[in-house]
Design goal:
The protein is of the alpha/beta class. The protein contains 9 helices and 19 strands. This is FAD/NAD(P)-binding domain-containing protein.
Length: 364
């Protein structure tokens, strides 16, 4: 049995940021991740971040990830990789399976769940053919493993993930045949969308994939136009020859461990679905269990890091590593940074911040 004041599940941007804050306060911290490398999504993100200087604006995700890992090493934070947390009991004891072979138990005083999210799939005839994959999977292949998933790619979804991964696929040597969007308008930031548009990639709004075509792999995709009620319009089908179809159709928070731990949930479609209710310190309804990053609602990596910092500060304060005045100041600073990230063009509160009130256990 291992004992740690703070155990963090997930070594992505939220988890590492939480670990750094808790360890900086003086807590002994363990980070557990099922992957063989820490850093999560950051090492796939070769594009530069937006925001302010304190939000790492102008810095590529991979560099931010390396910085977090360097800070983790300096603070002597323990990191277990290839380790899966299979359960959390009411006494905050975690059952961990390491390297898919060895079971061990860890007793924590505080737990921070930074488990991230999973890609959403879209069902259409042929969606199980080799060559149909999540956009994040394609991004992992090109940016981490240096493997091109295909030569001619169709992207479904025009949000930031869709347009960013499309551009990175082109940088890696693939041709992006088109970006398809079911909504009547594009969803990504203009700066990302414009780069893809300038490269000559066509966009099909109010369209979706009717079917993927091929014998033992994707050979083409049939598109169909959608009417104002999102119904396919017969006679509008068109076929595009591609060998890869990428799905950038949103994310769903990975909340299984929060369910197991007995956290209460709310449902907010705009933030990804079922979310653990948490307070302004990121603590859930299960005392001593905190959330940060995509498990608390789908947003950007910059927001995930700030939530991780907030959770780490809060857990450390609850353990007595900060006095009330210091912890209140640090929490306020973290919320100021979060609010800045969630502001609109003219400083107005975005809808996503209003949705957060429900996740925080408050009414609109």
């Amino acid at each position: 049995m291992y004992n740690y004041p703070v155990v963090i599940i997930g070594a992505g941007p939220a988890g590492l940021s939480a670990a750094i804050e808790a360890a900086s306060a003086g807590a002994k911290v363990l980070v557990i991740d099922e992957n063989d490398k820490p850093g999560g999504q950051l090492f796939k993100q070769i594009h530069k971040f937006f925001g302010s200087r304190e939000h790492k604006a102008g810095i590529r995700g991979i560099r931010i990830g390396n910085t977090l890992l360097e800070e983790t090493a300096k603070l002597n934070i323990d990191v277990w990789l290839n380790a899966e947390v299979c359960s959390i009991d009411p006494h905050k004891t975690l059952w961990v399976v390491k390297d898919k072979a060895t079971s061990t138990y860890v007793k924590a005083e505080k737990i921070i769940l930074a488990t991230g999210a999973t890609e959403n799939a879209v069902h259409f005839p042929g969606w199980t053919l080799p060559g149909v994959m999540g956009a994040g999977a394609a991004q992992t292949m090109i940016n981490i493993h240096r493997v091109l998933p295909g030569k001619n790619v169709l992207m479904l979804g025009s949000g930031n993930v869709g347009v960013i991964v499309s551009y990175q696929l082109m940088q890696a040597g693939a041709d992006v045949a088109a970006i398809v969007e079911a909504a009547p308008q594009l969803g990504g930031y203009g700066v990302h969308t414009a780069k893809v548009c300038r490269a000559g990639v066509p966009f099909y709004t109010s369209h979706t994939i009717a079917r993927a075509m091929g014998v033992d792999h994707v050979e083409a995709a049939e598109l169909v136009q959608l009417d104002a009620q999102w119904n396919p319009m017969p006679g509008t089908e068109k076929t595009i020859a591609v060998d890869t179809i990428c799905l950038a159709t949103g994310l769903t928070p990975l909340v299984e461990l929060a369910w197991i731990a007995g956290c209460q949930f709310t449902f907010i479609p705009q933030l990804g679905g079922h979310l653990p209710i948490h307070n302004e310190f990121m603590e859930t309804t299960a005392p001593g269990i905190y959330v940060a990053g995509d498990i608390s609602g789908i947003e950007e990596a910059s927001t995930a890091m700030e939530e991780g910092r907030l959770a780490g500060i809060s857990a450390a304060a609850a353990l007595g590593y900060y006095d009330k005045t210091t912890s209140a100041t640090l929490v306020k600073q973290a919320w100021n940074r979060l609010d800045a990230l969630r502001c609109g063009e003219f400083g107005e509160t975005r809808k996503i911040s209003k949705d957060r009130l429900v996740a925080l256990g408050k009414e609109h």
